[in-house]
Amino acid sequence: MAEAFGASEVSFAFGQVVGSADGVPVSVTIRDEPQRIDAECELASIGHGANMAFRRSALRTIGGFDEVLGAGGPLRAGEDKDAVWRLLCAGHIGAYVADAIVEHVLWRGRRQAVRLSYGYGLGWGALSAKAIRDNREDGQGLLRAGIGPLGLRQAWRDLRAGYATGTASSLAWTAGVATGVCRGWSLPLHNGRFVTEEVLRELTPSDHSLTKDQRDEGIPA
Fold first, then answer.
1. Per the structure, how many domains does the chain have?
2. Would residue 211 count as lying in a domain?
């Protein structure tokens, strides 16, 4: 993957994530062709956070990851897609490197996979809300994709195929998207990132004065 950053215009890169063992196939990305990632690409299909890298200087320009998103955060997931979305909005491009491969042990059973899908949907919904609030034209597109092709339509396809775990996971994803939109709409924003009380305590005094009223009203900074 490091070779991708030999091109100075590449700000981030993703690679393949292949599954092993016998668990439910979640968190995998299998594509054999390299790809240039720009604002025209579908955000859902660019890659997975289990195999990604960022140019540090590019990540700094957007203030780093949104720590409210992602594993261990209130919104559980989506920090990878969110960072890429903000970089793409800022005019950066990335690369999908097909020969950069990691093996992901598929240890989750049905219940864990459904729970994970809900968390993924939660992050996607919050990102959609952030994009809409930021007056980005693609915000509503992200929301429609989360509810439609990635959610209810996928559940219908899985149902018709007799794939019960897939159906439950897609419905859980859809529920997560709906919940994530609500949460993402109410959380204050500061410099493109969600702000919680814990984050506010880490900001400088000038930042506090900037966001206090916005925190109460849910107005983006």
1. 1
2. no
